[in-house]
């Protein structure tokens, strides 16, 4: 989860988020180099005593400021397209979960298990346990097995919502009457927090998302207890 005064992204908990962090650093270095070059040119132009008032054209400089930006855009576009294709890649998921947005809570349905569905509401402040996070914890978490490809089908019952978990690099719109899908793999056990990222009404900020990543044997024990209760 995020922490106070945080400037960067959250620590990556999925391969896609690791790729996004690498791309962010790559693009930021390009921005720094461009900014430094522009600042140097501006400083040079302001301090030089030379002037060329009779120059009508400069083929060399025109070639440079046409070709150089094209090369820079290619260096940014190619890694970006690679990540976009990786995010759309869904091969033989081990588990499929249907996520339905409501005003103002989430409903999760484990389609591979019969009659396994539950609502996930934000935990009120008066019911928070010690160490829990205000406005982020829920009464029922979405539990998934670690190191397994998970497919999530996202839709909404009433208005537009958005199912987003920053640590996993996920942000998928929940649109009424439309079924979107995303996929992720958690690389370590833990709790990963998210929130609805689409302004969906007066309680928009009170429908958090909590994903609990657990080893496979713990996940199987959880499914057994959930289905028997």
From TrEMBL:
The chain crosses the membrane at residues 27-46, 67-87. It is a multi-pass membrane protein. The gene is CO2. It comes from the Eukaryota. This is Cytochrome c oxidase subunit 2. Component of the cytochrome c oxidase, the last enzyme in the mitochondrial electron transport chain which drives oxidative phosphorylation. The respiratory chain contains 3 multisubunit complexes succinate dehydrogenase (complex II, CII), ubiquinol-cytochrome c oxidoreductase (cytochrome b-c1 complex, complex III, CIII) and cytochrome c oxidase (complex IV, CIV), that cooperate to transfer electrons derived from NADH and succinate to molecular oxygen, creating an electrochemical gradient over the inner membrane that drives transmembrane transport and the ATP synthase. Binds a copper A center. Residues 92-225 form the Cytochrome oxidase subunit II copper A binding domain. Belongs to the cytochrome c oxidase subunit 2 family. It is found in: Mitochondrion inner membrane. Residues 1-91 form the Cytochrome oxidase subunit II transmembrane region profile domain. It catalyses: 4 Fe(II)-[cytochrome c] + O2 + 8 H(+)(in) = 4 Fe(III)-[cytochrome c] + 2 H2O + 4 H(+)(out). Its cofactor is Cu cation. Pfam families: COX2, COX2_TM. SUPFAM superfamilies: Cupredoxins (SSF49503), Cytochrome c oxidase subunit II-like, transmembrane region (SSF81464). One of its GO terms (biological process) is ATP synthesis coupled electron transport. Its main location: mitochondrion. Keywords: Copper, Electron transport, Magnesium, Membrane, Metal-binding, Mitochondrion, Mitochondrion inner membrane, Respiratory chain, Translocase, Transmembrane, Transmembrane helix, Transport. One of its GO terms (cellular component) is mitochondrial inner membrane. GO terms for molecular function: copper ion binding; cytochrome-c oxidase activity; oxidoreductase activity.
């Amino acid at each position: 989860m995020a922490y106070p005064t945080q400037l960067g992204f959250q620590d990556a908990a999925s391969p896609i988020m690791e790729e996004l962090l690498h791309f962010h650093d790559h693009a930021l270095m390009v921005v720094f180099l461009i900014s430094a070059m522009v600042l140097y040119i501006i400083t040079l132009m302001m301090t030089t005593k030379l002037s060329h008032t009779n120059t009508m054209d400069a083929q060399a400089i025109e070639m440079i400021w046409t070709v150089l930006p094209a090369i820079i855009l290619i260096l940014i576009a190619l890694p970006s397209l690679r990540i976009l294709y990786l995010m759309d890649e869904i091969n033989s998921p081990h588990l499929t979960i249907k996520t339905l947005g409501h005003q103002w809570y989430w409903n999760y349905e484990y389609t591979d298990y019969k009659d396994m569905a539950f609502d996930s509401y934000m935990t009120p402040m008066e019911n928070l346990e010690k160490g829990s996070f205000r406005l982020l914890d829920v009464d029922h978490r979405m539990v998934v097995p670690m190191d397994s490809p998970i497919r999530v089908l996202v839709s909404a019952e009433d208005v537009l919502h958005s199912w987003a978990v920053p640590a996993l690099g996920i942000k998928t719109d929940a649109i009424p009457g439309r079924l979107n899908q995303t996929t992720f793999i958690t690389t370590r056990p833990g709790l990963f927090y998210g929130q609805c990222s689409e302004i969906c009404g007066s309680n928009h900020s009170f429908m958090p998302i909590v994903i609990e990543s657990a080893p496979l044997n713990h996940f199987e024990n959880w499914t057994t207890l959930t289905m028997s209760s």
